[in-house]
TrEMBL record:
Domain HTH araC/xylS-type: 424-522
Principal location listed in the UniProt entry: cytoplasm
Location in the cell: Cytoplasm
Taxonomic lineage of the native organism: Bacteria, Bacillati, Bacillota, Bacilli, Bacillales
Organism: Niallia alba
Occurrences of domain Response regulatory (ranges): 2-119
Record has Transferase as a keyword: no
Modified-residue entries (4-aspartylphosphate), positions: D54
CDD domains found in the cross-reference section: REC_YesN-like
GO BP terms: phosphorelay signal transduction system
GO terms for MF: DNA-binding transcription factor activity; sequence-specific DNA binding
Gene3D superfamilies per record: 3.40.50.2300, Homeodomain-like
GO cellular component term, pick one: cytoplasm
Full protein name: Response regulator
Keywords, alphabetical: Cytoplasm, DNA-binding, Phosphoprotein, Transcription, Transcription regulation, Two-component regulatory system
Length: 528
């Protein structure tokens, strides 16, 4: 793996190079840049997986670099390192996909904890990317999967065989217009939660309507989960009329009133992505509050995105109060601010959920609590979109209140356990369960404390890590059994948690200095 450090201060770059555990994270190549302009050249040349970046730099600053990476190098993982403890910078970093935000002077432990986590995230995402590539290779020419795959390639401007265009009757059109529809959770519920059946039915109905006019084709845009693209072989004015007919048919036959956005009119297959991107932008900015009357939207209206970061001090006070009631008025104020113009865009909701998870993660870290983080923000929001493309705000608020209440209960529980010296309780738990495999996650779940906190505190208390402690207990028990019983070595091994007696013998000799049989013989001689 490769890493890039971007900072206009040389001593900062040297400090990160010195403090980071590169070898432990399998990073073998380290590059440096003093500004964003040089960093972009290095990224395009060597493709580093991990990028450390300052925010304020000459030429191209950190914000501009993050924005460029968001558009051109999304697979890279960024860690912002800056001396500016300002929510403005934090919000910018988060908006463009930064994995974390560290303040100068750099704390070595925090740096390495963050580096290890980000490397693991990159590895997991790399596996997902490779799995996705492998899956795409298996797609054959069986419709509708073949249709969806080929037409998705076409929208993405990937090379496509002319025969495919002829197969789908897309060559002779004088104009093309892309329309876009998002599959909502409410629509899927109409089909008892079966996403594939929902897609299959919607595409059949839509293509039946389009084929009546020989006006185009609809397909599942496989690059984005739940998107249906309608490729209309008409000018935009005619496309709007056709799309209204499709919308009415879906409402009459299936009871669905889905929003459909319409992109730019283009004259060439190679320009379809422009039309799609315009329709996608409209879809992201659509109003899902329930106040949008016309479900066929043709014009893009950018809306101001409001941030949760401005409520940081109020959130802190509510957490310190430790009661759910302290959050009620805060949630009400946030709702009032977000819906002040009687609109609530899809993009605003995505931004809101993203910031909520970021703030929630920070508070869980503050109290050393484990947390499950969703990697699909859109899916989280889509759960609250009904069959009419309306966001169920009250249901969403109820869900968040439950999550906050659970967090507060865990904080109280943890504080109580801390007063009872939880590490000693963990030591007792380990002693009681030494004869079976004990995973750190099991202990974390049992005591409601993060694995990292347990590992660190246990070693501070007993000068040994948990796995070594388990081995020491097992060896003591083995010695007792060897002295006081006639049990066979493999029976003793099974009793103390080893399924493989050969491995047990190896560990015993390493710890005690002699084999189990030699130890038993020596003890028998001592007795005589």
């Amino acid at each position: 793996m490769k890493a890039l450090i971007v900072d206009d201060e040389r001593h900062v770059r040297e400090g990160i190079k010195l403090l980071a555990d590169w070898a432990g994270n399998e990073i073998t190549e380290i590059y440096e840049a003093s500004n964003g302009e040089d960093a972009i050249q290095i990224i395009e040349s060597v493709h580093p997986e991990i990028i450390f970046s300052d925010m304020k730099m000459p030429k191209i600053d950190g914000t501009q670099l993050l924005k460029w990476m968001d558009e051109h190098y999304a697979e890279g993982k960024t860690i912002v390192v800056t001396g500016y403890d300002d929510y403005h910078y934090m919000r910018k970093a988060m908006h463009y996909g930064s994995s974390d935000y560290l303040l100068k002077p750099i704390d070595p432990k925090m740096l390495n904890d963050t580096l290890m986590r980000v490397v693991q995230e990159w590895k997991q995402e790399e596996v997902e990317r490779k799995n996705k590539q492998d899956k795409n290779l298996l797609i054959n020419k069986m419709k509708p999967a073949y249709r969806d795959q080929q037409l998705t390639h076409m929208i993405n401007n990937d090379p496509i065989d002319k025969n495919v265009l002829e197969e789908f009757l897309l060559i002779e059109a004088k104009a093309y217009t892309i329309a876009l529809m998002q599959l909502s959770n409410g629509a899927i519920e109409q089909f008892k939660g079966d996403r594939d059946l929902t897609l299959f039915t919607l595409l059949n109905v839509i293509n039946e309507e389009l084929s009546r006019h020989n006006s185009g084709i609809a397909f599942h845009y496989v690059t984005a989960k739940g998107e249906i693209v309608l490729l209309i072989k008409r000018r935009k004015e005619e496309a709007v009329i056709l799309i209204r007919g499709v919308h009415n048919t879906l409402k009459e036959l299936l009871g669905l009133s889905c929003t459909i956005t319409i992109g730019l009119e283009v004259t060439s297959i190679t320009q379809l992505n422009l039309s799609y991107q315009y329709a996608k932008s409209i879809m992201m900015n659509r109003d899902v509050s329930g106040n949008q009357q016309d479900k066929i939207i043709t014009d893009k209206k950018e809306k101001e995105i409001k941030s949760l970061m401005g409520y940081a001090s109020s959130i802190k006070m509510a957490v310190q109060a430790g009661e759910l009631n302290a959050f009620h008025s805060l949630i009400g104020q946030i709702q009032k601010d977000l819906t002040s113009n009687n609109q609530l865009s899809w993009r605003q909701l995505i931004h809101l959920e993203n910031e909520y998870q970021m703030i929630s993660t920070r508070w869980h870290k503050e109290f050393n609590l484990p947390m499950n983080i969703s990697t699909n923000i859109e899916e989280q929001i889509n759960r609250f979109i009904d069959k009419n493309d309306h966001f169920q705000l009250e249901a969403y608020k109820t869900r968040k209140k439950k999550e906050i209440a659970l967090f507060l209960r865990r904080v109280k529980r943890q504080n109580t356990r801390k007063s009872q010296n939880v590490i000693h309780e963990i030591e007792k738990y380990v002693k009681a369960n030494f004869h079976r495999e004990i995973k750190l996650q099991e202990i974390s779940n049992h005591f409601y404390i993060s694995r990292e906190y347990i590992s660190r505190k246990f070693k501070q208390e007993y000068n040994i890590n948990i796995s070594e402690y388990v081995v020491s207990i097992r060896m003591k028990k083995a010695q007792e059994l060897l002295k006081s019983s006639n049990l066979k070595v493999y029976d003793i091994a099974n009793m103390i948690g080893y399924q493989d007696d050969k491995y047990f013998r190896k560990v015993f000799k390493k710890i005690v200095g002699v084999s189990p049989n030699e130890y038993r013989e020596k003890k028998l001689e001592d007795i005589k």
